[in-house]
Amino acid sequence: MSKKLVVGNVDAVELETEFETPIEQTGYSEYVVKGGSKFRRIASVSRPVMKLDVGKTYYVQIQSPFKTELLSEEQRKKSKYPESETITIFDVLDLETGEEMQAVGRSVFVSEMSEKYPENAYVGRSFEFSLSRPEGKRYTVPRIYEIEV
Fold first, then answer.
1. Closest to 147 measured CA to CA, from 102, 97, 75, 96
2. Which helix (H) or strand (E) holds 100?
3. Between the chain's N and C termini, which has fewer beta carbons within 10 Å?
């Protein structure tokens, strides 16, 4: 007999056992089964940062409005862009893994999304995006598509 494990807004995943084998789903899952016990997650308190690699495609649902924060002097020293004084972050659901993550929005991405989706209308929508880097350049160019899930 199989049971369903609900994973966020993504289709349910069929499990082949009745939770006889201890499993742990990371990220945005409804239940965690470990050592035969069953727990219900209420909320995600912390989120890992989504690392965006040039040339890779990502499928996400944006879960929060963009939030701009000031960087401390120490954070700016550690950054690969030390001239930046702020960082724009937002919460996403990785539609491939079901994991809740935090993403960092570069200025071009934030500008394009804010222009196309005024008043935070991008929240709750799903997107495919990727980064490319023109040959010999330091900057990246985002490709963004709204998708239907």
1. 96
2. strand 100-105
3. N
